[in-house]
């Protein structure tokens, strides 16, 4: 079986499984999975920069929040419906990603980590500063009447799951296609050896900027969808915690793999969910598992799959 | 006419003059070897040519055009190719993909890229292992992969920084044949320690010592040059 066939079967099969699960899962897990798919899209966006291009950002909460607030403010104050509000979120995240990319990419390595972290903190503080509009930590509850597209009510489990799956599938197929294209290969080449890529004649800065914009846009779309589907927009999502989450999800699932972000998000979500049912020290359980995975599967779960089973895993 | 020339090209590192006031001319179609003792400034000099590092002063001309202010990727775009002294392949990508990354700067479309890649791999003697991750190749094969990446670019000027280091005798012989075969289509600048390679492939030889050109001439002239011998023996 050729690599292309295997790729189609694995990734197509996963999407088909996610589609079928909505008819099989009990209500509680049905709701969880919708949330996980949106968060996994956030992780996939992060993966474009970290996993494929080798740019370690500590400030992706900024992009998630840019999309979320772009959507939320448009809905709250301009009375925008889902399409218009999502477009506002999209535009906000593209603009923020472009500006952050142009400035932060002048640094590299540790400098890049610090600069992205500082940008995200500045974003978080701006949201708090304009509390009169953003309601700060308290956040905004999206008016349910506006979360309707015709007769489709995104506050209902069915449409919500479907919308989350649509978002996830878009990001998933986009990443898959991109990483098999010549453009994606250049990003991987930059990750592997930036100087060599430059000396093959590639304008490394422009490729990295494109990676930041694609990554930031995908994360912003996830943030906007999160606000729309779960009806709440708050400053917590711009806090440093939400910059660390995607890093953890991607590391756990397997950086630089298409399926890794979903696996990592799913794993971490249920790890906390299940351990919190057993003990109040659930963060300890999560911490121990994280340490064990880092020690014994440093490539992440999908990374181990690639190392042991199938080297061609995209 | 010269494909590449430099005028007054200098670079110092914290007061150390790595390359000093070098005037250098490389005519089109020539195979030129650049030799010199360790620390003579050979790698610094070629890095200045292709823009990996910027000069303290002086100019570089390529095909009659002043390229001193161009960033590296633009110079490569004009038709230079540079292979690294320290093996510098994309280790987690396949040998094929390494060469394809080089080829796609010049040709487009899957079939055309495939043709260029397979030809470059064959010229370098690596056509039997295109799918192997570059990091899994032996050191010698990684050197050959570097050369294949240079060939796939079909450059007008190919700069090779110690290409035969770590190659077996058989691979060195194949390399010599490869260079002789490229003579008609490509101008080549070759940093090389292996004197048999220099003697058998180079049209002319430039000797660098303490960042300055010590001598220039045919391989035979350089071989007989007393100054060069002194520099190498360290009695100069």
TrEMBL record, chain A:
Transmembrane segments: 7-29, 49-71, 83-104, 110-132, 161-179, 209-235, 247-272, 278-298
Record's keyword terms, sorted: Cell membrane, Membrane, Transmembrane, Transmembrane helix
GO molecular function terms noted in the UniProt entry: branched-chain amino acid transmembrane transporter activity
Major localization class: membrane
Membrane topology recorded in Swiss-Prot or TrEMBL: Multi-pass membrane protein
Entry's Gene Ontology cellular component terms: plasma membrane
Subcellular location: Cell membrane
Keyword Lipid biosynthesis: no
Name of the protein this chain belongs to: Branched-chain amino acid ABC transporter permease
Automatic annotation (TrEMBL), chain B:
Keywords per UniProt: ATP-binding, Nucleotide-binding, Transport
A Pfam family: ABC_tran
Signal sequence annotation: none
Gene Ontology terms for molecular function: ATP binding; ATP hydrolysis activity
Entry-linked SUPFAM superfamilies: P-loop containing nucleoside triphosphate hydrolases
PROSITE patterns in the cross-refs: ABC_TRANSPORTER_2
Sequence ranges assigned to domain ABC transporter in this UniProt record: 4-235
Protein name stated in the entry: ABC transporter ATP-binding protein
Record flagged with keyword Electron transport: no
GO cellular component, one term: plasma membrane
PANTHER family per the UniProt record, alphabetical: ABC TRANSPORTER ATP-BINDING PROTEIN, CONSERVED COMPONENT OF ABC TRANSPORTER FOR NATURAL AMINO ACIDS-RELATED
Lineage of source species: Bacteria, Pseudomonadati, Pseudomonadota, Alphaproteobacteria, Rhodobacterales
Species of the source: Pseudodonghicola xiamenensis
């Amino acid at each position: 079986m050729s690599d292309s066939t295997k790729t189609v079967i694995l990734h197509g099969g996963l999407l088909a499984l996610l589609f079928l699960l909505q008819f099989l899962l009990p209500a509680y897990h049905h709701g969880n999975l919708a949330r996980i798919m949106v968060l996994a899209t956030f992780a996939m966006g992060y993966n474009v920069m970290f996993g494929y291009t080798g740019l370690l950002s500590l400030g992706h909460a900024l992009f998630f929040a840019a999309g979320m607030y772009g959507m939320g403010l448009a809905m709250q104050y301009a009375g925008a419906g889902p399409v218009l509000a999502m477009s506002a979120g999209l535009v906000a995240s593209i603009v923020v990603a472009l500006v952050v990319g142009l400035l932060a990419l002048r640094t590299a390595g540790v400098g890049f980590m610090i600069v992205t972290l500082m940008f995200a903190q500045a974003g978080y503080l701006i949201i708090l500063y304009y509390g009169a509009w953003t309601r700060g930590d308290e956040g905004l509850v999206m008016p349910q009447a506006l979360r309707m597209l015709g007769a489709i009510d995104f506050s209902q489990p069915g449409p919500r799951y479907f919308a989350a799956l649509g978002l996830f599938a878009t990001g998933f197929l986009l990443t898959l296609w991109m990483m098999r294209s010549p453009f994606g290969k250049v990003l991987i080449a930059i990750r592997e050896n930036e100087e060599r890529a430059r000396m093959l004649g590639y304008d490394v800065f422009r490729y990295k900027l494109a990676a930041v914009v694609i990554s930031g846009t995908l994360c912003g779309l996830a943030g906007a969808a999160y606000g729309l589907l779960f009806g709440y927009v708050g400053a917590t999502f711009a806090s440093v915690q939400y910059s660390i989450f995607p890093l953890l999800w991607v590391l756990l699932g397997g950086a630089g793999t298409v399926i890794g972000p979903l696996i990592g998000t799913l794993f971490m979500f249920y790890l906390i969910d299940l351990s919190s049912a057993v003990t109040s020290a659930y963060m300890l359980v999560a911490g121990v598992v994280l340490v064990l995975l880092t020690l014994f599967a440093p490539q992440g779960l999908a990374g181990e799959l690639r190392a042991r089973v199938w080297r061609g895993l995209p | 006419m010269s494909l590449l020339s430099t005028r007054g090209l200098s670079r110092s590192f914290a007061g150390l003059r790595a390359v000093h006031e070098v005037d250098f001319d490389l005519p089109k179609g020539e195979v030129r070897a650049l030799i010199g003792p360790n620390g003579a400034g050979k790698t610094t000099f070629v890095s200045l040519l292709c823009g990996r590092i910027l000069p303290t002063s002086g100019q570089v001309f390529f095909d009659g055009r002043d390229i001193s202010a161009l960033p590296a990727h633009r110079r490569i775009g004009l038709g230079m190719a540079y292979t690294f002294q320290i093996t510098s392949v994309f280790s987690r990508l396949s040998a094929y993909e390494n060469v394809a990354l080089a080829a796609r700067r010049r040709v487009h479309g899957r079939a055309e890229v495939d043709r260029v890649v397979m030809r470059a791999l064959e010229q370098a003697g690596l056509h039997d292992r295109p799918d192997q991750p570059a990091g899994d190749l032996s050191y010698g094969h990684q050197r050959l992969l570097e050369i294949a990446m240079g060939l796939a670019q079909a450059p007008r000027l190919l700069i090779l920084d110690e290409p035969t280091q770590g190659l077996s005798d058989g691979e060195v012989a194949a390399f010599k044949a490869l260079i002789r075969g490229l003579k008609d289509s490509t101008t080549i600048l070759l940093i090389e320690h292996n004197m048999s390679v220099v003697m058998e492939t180079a049209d002319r030889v430039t000797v660098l010592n303490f960042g300055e050109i010590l001598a220039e001439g045919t391989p035979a002239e350089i071989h007989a040059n007393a100054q060069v011998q002194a520099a190498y023996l360290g009695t100069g």
